[in-house]
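Need the bound structure for aspartic acid, inputs here:
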Amino acid sequence: MSAAQWIVLKFGGTSVSTKARWATIGKLANSRLAEGGCVLIVVSAVSGVTDQLKALIEAEPAARAELAQRLVEQHRAFAAELGVDAAILAEVEAELDECLSSPHAAARAFPWQARVFALGELWSSRLGAAFLTASGTTTEWLDARTQLSAQALPNQGDWARHLSTTCQVQHAPALAEQLAQAGRSQITQGFIARNLSGETVLLGRGGSDTSAACFGTLLGASRVEIWTDVPGMFSANPRRVPQARLLRHLDYDEAQEIATTGAKVLHPRCLGPVREGGVPLWIKDTQRPDLEGTCIDASGGDGPLSVKAISHRIGVTLVSMESIGMWQQVGFLADVFDYFRRHGLSVDLIGSAETNVTVSLDPSENLLSADTLEALCADLARVCRVKVIAPCAAITLVGRGMRRMLHRLSEVLAEFGEQRVHLVSQSSNNLNLTFVVDESIAEALLPRLHEHLIRARVMAVDDARLFGPSWEALSAPEDVTLPLPWWQRERDKLLQIAAEQGPAYVYHLDSVRNQARRLQQIEPVDRWFYAIKANDHPQLLQALVAQGFGLECVSAAEVAHVQRHCADLDAARIMFTPNFAPRDEYRQALAADVMVTVDALHALAQWGEDFAGAQIALRVDLGPGRGHHDKVRTGGSASKFGLAPSELAQAQELARKVGAKVVGLHAHLGSGILDPQHWAEVYAQLAALGERFVDLRWLDIGGGLGVPGQGERELDLDLVAAGLAKVKALYPQWALHMEPGRYLVADAGVLLTRVTQTKLKHGVRFVGVDAGMNALLRPALYDAVHPIANLTRLDEPATETVTVVGPICESGDVLGRERRLPASVEGDIIAIAQAGAYGAVMANRYNRRPLIAEVLL
Ligand code: ADP
Ligand code: ASP
Ligand code: MG
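Answer from helper R.:
Posting the output first, comments after.
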């Protein structure tokens, strides 16, 4: 006899809380029934009900009747909305009454709590059975406690044994058959089971997923579908990180790790049963059933090296134990951990040092009441000095092969470097890396960390087998298709240029002009300067000058270059903002009458006579630096730029002595900044310093406007403008200057290069091109990530994950890692985009390779 084929569908709280959602459940059940087998629907309590039951449990006995009545009325009203007879709820209401009058109610005994909590799922499943049957899909009501039985685990505390327990299940073909005979459509409760004494027990908060997984394995289901309020598992909680990407496919181990470390979308204990039974598990969105969702099964494991997700748990408690000289003693740690066992506490992370052991306790696995902790500490105090650190948050990066990615996490580590990290732990299964920090800082960190992971390509988001769209994109109206970038529209011309010139930078002047116009919409800014170090191609400078930009130079040679190619530009519209330049360059700039910025006392103290009668600006380091990489941050104590605010008075005094007037204050803290509030903050700080300078005419708040990489949101210039306007209203007496560089030109340039050779070594596929770090230094210097496309095969699907490398004899000569490209062959033209800034200007002749051509389109 072959057992009946089952599909298990689990619906979470929000998925069962309106009539429309129940209609969807009916449709989904019918479409699964149409596949020929049977369906088991597993439901949670209606959204919010479990929390209300919790409040009832925690309330004083006298206050419970009123809370209970509210729940009764709420469910009766829902029955009316669904058009079913409220009499079907009588049994649940009777059970509620019994609980209220139970002798265990006063003491809130754990078995009593479990009975009260179970009411939520009993209510929703009764309503569902009646509604689905009335809608034409006869659906039997099944008491989950008749099928799922929980075993107490060794050392399990009382709380866990009743309120957060587990079931061991195995495929039972006879049961699958027997249930099918009883009815092809069945509905049952998530969250609840029975123990060996027949009492009601719970699988832990959020445990309905685990119920569904247990049923899936028990029935040998062809799949378990978890229907919830998000369209799948994401690379971070999408409600905290809108840029989080859909995870299309995961294997059981990775999904387990993501769930255990905090992704609430799956209950951590639900992966065990499906893995055991080899049942695929899908995560889908009840409101948008057509979206693909996430599929979790046993396949995979051989995909690209990638961090898959960043998750976090709050409410974590750290127990730090300082030794009083006994760590080395045999069996000492066993004694310490025995105390945790005795208090029924399960330890999560462990960090140890010569004289200290620190462990973390996870709130979902433990009842972390003040009493329990106090009792634990009292015991531990006998053998060590104890300190409890709470509330903490554990932030975890999950991905197979974490150790092999460590060297690419520098920006993530830098982010943590600015915080107080209590504990770092790398799991022995090589799947995760966890940082424990104060709870208050965790949520703000998540989007930044996610951004770093994408930027550094440690999250291989362009591998379409693994990653789908971002939450933001899925939530956006569908018809916003982005225009093609210019270099894709001009593909034929570019291919021709590459054929004629060999490797070349190609610039698109219209893109530069467009960016300039967008900036000029920012009303509070009175004068714009272009930082020419980003790209000093004469025609590009002329185009910007024609559009009203001044030019900002950092060397005497740049000033001379500007004077040569933009002869009509007024000297007052040229800024000279050098750093550690020799005296001679200042002299030349002063002689040329351009605006000179001084950023060290040395210049004024040692070369005072050069500045006699001059109008100068002072560059201030408002610290800490900002930006996408350590090497582009130009503020903070380690930075060589600017005067410390505490040196300003002295600089002012020196200037007065030599007869120079300070007419400008300048600050620039870094580049690649996408936070629209940044410039208003700099403006306000600079303005506050301005009050003491009587001759002050303008403030220059620098540049650093970020150019979004893949998956990043554009800098919102309206927000930038609004922030600046507020500060301007307070300081209308000074003109406002800004000096962007990269923002104007990055997207206007591509580097064209030709495939020289391909190589597959140790499983890594290399595509070699004829321009490397000699032509484009940014990837090697800043770990910069440039979009890379095979221009010859623009229309072919990306089928390979490759590392794109140049011809320079340096292992750092890598233009891009883990890129998805069509299969590329010798002679193909590769376009490296966003190369208009800091590309050609940084090119060099290393290895005696010639400088490459620059072409204007
Ligand atoms: P249900 O009531 O359907 O069981 P849950 O609230 O338990 O739903 O789980 C869904 C929620 O999980 C989402 O609304 C989301 O806020 C949260 N969540 C946390 N981390 C993730 C993640 N990595 N991917 C998707 N959702 C997540
Ligand atoms: N209703 C239970 C809870 O809110 C179980 C679940 O929804 O998964 O925790
Ligand atoms: Mg849930």
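Comments: The first strand starts at residue 6 and ends at 11. The pocket of aspartic acid (ligand 2) is lined by residues 12-13, 44-45, 50, 120, 190-191, 205-208 (CB under 6 Å).
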